[in-house]
Design a protein that fits this description.
The chain is of the alpha/beta class. It has 6 helices and 9 strands; from the N terminus they run αββββαββαβαβαβα. It has a single domain, classed as Nucleoside phosphorylase domain (Rossmann fold), CATH 3.40.50. Helix 1 packs across helix 2. Bound molecules: hypoxanthine (HPA).
């Protein structure tokens, strides 16, 4: 088994070139990665340029119901953005390098700020289904790291991770939520490989480790972004109390709750964009 080269750093440049060609000189400043049930934000982008994954070298078609497969570039609240609708999850069997590929493409395009969203199970007892959580920090229990192997051009070998989620952006996100009159909690996101949901014993263990939410995404992207010096801010939609803390889990319910509170999260993100430093 060799992992060196499995990060496919070579796929970044051709995909970035393909996107740049479609953007014809426009440069996005902010990338927004949409999680389960949040795909609609891609439809709000003004003057949209839609780029299906099938047009991008190295991007396979995404599989999971509720996930699209396209990048949408344009403006939101006057900010040049590129929205990623459809993620590559490790539980689909994708290498961690592929999960991080879109973020590396954004970095190559000159994007400096990454806004990520995901669906997550809630571990904090006060987190009801529908709670929005700003991610303060994470615990990587995927046991995968997109930086492993050969150093990709422009990446740092040993990036500092003492502030993976930017302090200033988190303060702006809290302010944005207040302005949008949306309640926003803050906590630690624990990333797992999935695709099975956790057992109640695992959830009790993760609570003791300091996790407030569990999910199956986001962390590979944040690690790759930090290695490029991009600033990150991330939100979890708590779609359900985690295993053993509520009724049995279903992917269908996760998508439904994600859609129900997606509008609130979209308003927070739009408000945040209006306040982002240039
Ligand atoms: N566990 C892991 N991932 C999830 C959950 C969960 O309970 N809910 C939504 N994504």
């Amino acid at each position: 088994m060799t992992d060196v080269g499995s990060r496919e750093p070579g796929a970044v440049r051709p995909a970035a070139d393909a996107v740049a060609e479609r953007l014809a000189g426009r440069t996005p400043q902010v990338a927004i990665v949409l999680g389960s049930g949040l795909g609609f934000l891609g439809d709000d982008v003004e003057a949209p340029v839609r780029i299906p994954y099938r047009d991008l070298p190295g991007f396979p078609d995404p599989g999971v119901a509720g996930h699209k497969g396209e990048l949408v570039a344009g403006t939101l609240e006057g900010v040049p953005v590129i929205v990623q609708s459809g993620r590559f999850h490790l539980y689909e069997g994708h290498p961690v390098a592929l999960a991080a590929l879109p973020v590396r493409v954004f970095a190559a395009l000159g994007v400096h700020t990454l806004v990520l969203t995901n669906a997550a199970g809630g571990l904090r007892p006060t987190f009801a289904a529908g709670t929005l959580m700003l991610i303060a920090d994470h615990i990587n229990l995927m046991w995968r790291n997109p930086l492993r192997g050969q150093v990709a051009a422009g990446d740092e070998r040993f990036p500092d991770m003492s502030e993976p989620y930017d302090r200033e952006l988190r303060a702006l996100a809290r302010q944005a939520a207040r302005d949008a009159r949306v309640r926003l909690e803050e906590g630690v996101y624990c990333a797992l490989l999935g695709p099975s949901y956790e057992t109640p014993a695992e959830i009790r263990a993760y609570r003791r480790l300091g996790a407030d939410a569990v999910g199956m995404s986001t962390v590979p992207e944040v690690i790759a972004a930090r290695a490029r010096g991009m600033r990150c801010v991330a939100f979890s939609t708590i779609t359900n109390p985690a295993a053993g803390m509520g009724p049995p889990l279903s992917h269908h319910d996760v998508l439904e709750v994600g859609k129900r509170v997606g509008g609130d999260l979209a308003r927070v993100i739009r408000q945040l964009l209006r306040h982002l430093p240039a």
